[in-house]
Amino acid sequence: MALTSGLGGQLSIDLGALARNWRALDKVSAGALTAAVVKADAYGIGIDAASKALHAAGARFFFVATPDEGMAVRAALPDAHVFILYGLYPGAANLYIRQNLMPVLSSMSMLEEWLAKCVERNEAYPAAFHFDTGINRIGFRLNEAGLVRERIEALGYAPQMVMSHLACADTPNHEKNRTQLALFGSVMSQFPGIPASLANSAGLMTGRDYHFQMVRPGIALYGGRAVNGRKNPMQPVVTLHVPILQVAEGRTGETVGYGAAYTLNRNSRLAILGYGYADGFFRSLSGTNQRPGGKVFIRGKLCPVIGRISMDLTVVDVTELGSDLPMPGEGAEVLGAHIGVDDQADAAGTIGYEILTSLKGRYTRNYVGDGRLPE
C-alpha cells in the first residue's frame, strides 16, 4: 500500500451510493439477473472495496476484463460467479479452473483449448460464449455459430450463457441497436435453452427487449452517464478535492502556464492547485483564450481552469470570488455534487469512463459505507 501524508488530494468513494445504484438498476431489470462489471479496478474506485459493497447490495455475478482482475474478485468474494470478459488467455486454463473463473470464449482457438481441458479432466467447466453482432471487436463471427454448436454438441457441452455487446446503446434510437438485437436473436436460436445477455448500462436503460436473462451494468453503477440526451438518474459515487497551494495575482497582458497559451485580459487572482495530469486531470481540460477548459468548484462558485495543465499543477481563475478568496491548504472540488464526472468529461472532449478510470493520482482514498442496507 502506498504511503500518504493525507495532505494532498482527497478522493472520497461512497460505497453506499454504489450499492444504491446497483439496487436501482436491479429494480429496472426485474426478471433478469443484474450482474456488476468491475473491470479496470472497478472503473477506478477500487475493485476490492467495490466488489464487497456490490455483493452486500445483492450482486452475485461479476464481470472483469483479465484473469488478474478475476483473482482479485475471487479473493474478496469466495462465493461470487466471476466471468473473464476477454476470454481464455492462451495456456491459462488451469489457472481459471483453480480460481473458479469462467472465461467468455470468443474464438475457435479459445473454444478448442477450453474443451480440450474439459476432456482432459473429464469435467464440463463453465464458460460463456461471446458473439460479435456488429461492434467488430472480440467475439465469434455470426457465421461460426453453427460450427460452435456442432462442436459442443459432439462433446455434450453447454455454455453457461451466450452474450453479445451493443455498439450504440448510449443512443437509444440508433438503428444499430435494433439490428444487433435481431442478429443476437439469430444466434440464440442456435443455442435453445441457454441463458442470454446483451445489455450494458445503456442497454439496460433502453428497454426490456434487451434484458434477456442477465444484464451487465458498468458505468451507471459508478454514477456515470450511460445514455446521451437524458438526465442521469444515478447517484454520484466519487468526490475529489485537491489542495490549493497558493493564491497569486496576475496582471493584464501576462501569460499563464507552459506555452503562454492563456493571456490575462484583466488583473486577476489565480489559485494554483496541487493537481495535474499525473493525477488524472487531462491536459485537454486546459483553458486557452480560444477555448474554455475545465472548471473546479471553490467557495460556492465554478471557477475556470486557465493555461495549460501541467504534470503537478493547475491554475484556476478565482477573480470572480471577489474578496472571498480561498486560503492555502483549502480544498477545491474537482468532482462532486457541484461538478460531476460527466461535466469534466464533456469539457475534456471525452467520456465519464475515461475520467473515472484515470483516478490513480497522488491522493488519499476514503471509503464511505459498505453497501449494506441501513438497519
Please state roughly what percent of the residues sit in beta strands, choosing from under 5%, 5-15%, 15-25%, 25-35%, 35-45% or over 45%.
15-25%
The span between the termini is: 32 Å
Domain tally: 2
Mean pLDDT: 95
Number of strands: 19
Keywords: Isomerase, Pyridoxal phosphate
Active site: 39 (proton acceptor), 258 (proton acceptor)
Protein name: Alanine racemase
Enzyme class: isomerase
Structure description:
By secondary structure, the protein is of the alpha/beta class. The chain has helices at 15-28, 39-43, 47-57, 67-76, 93-99, 108-121, 145-155, 175-188, 201-206, 341-348, 352-357; strands at residues 9-14, 33-34, 36-37, 61-64, 81-84, 101-105, 128-130, 161-163, 196-197, 214-215, 238-250, 255-256, 262-263, 268-273, 295-298, 301-304, 314-317, 331-335, 363-368. The protein has two domains: 15-222, Alanine racemase (TIM Barrel, Alpha-Beta Barrel), CATH 3.20.20.10; 238-339, Lyase, Ornithine Decarboxylase, Chain A, domain 1 (Beta Barrel). 28% of the residues lie in helices and 21% in strands. Strands 3-4-5-6-7-8-9 form a seven-stranded parallel beta sheet. Strands 1, 11, 14, 17, 18 and 19 form a six-stranded mixed beta sheet that branches. Helix 8 links the parallel strand 8 (161-163) and strand 9 (196-197). The chain is elongated, with a radius of gyration of 24 Å.
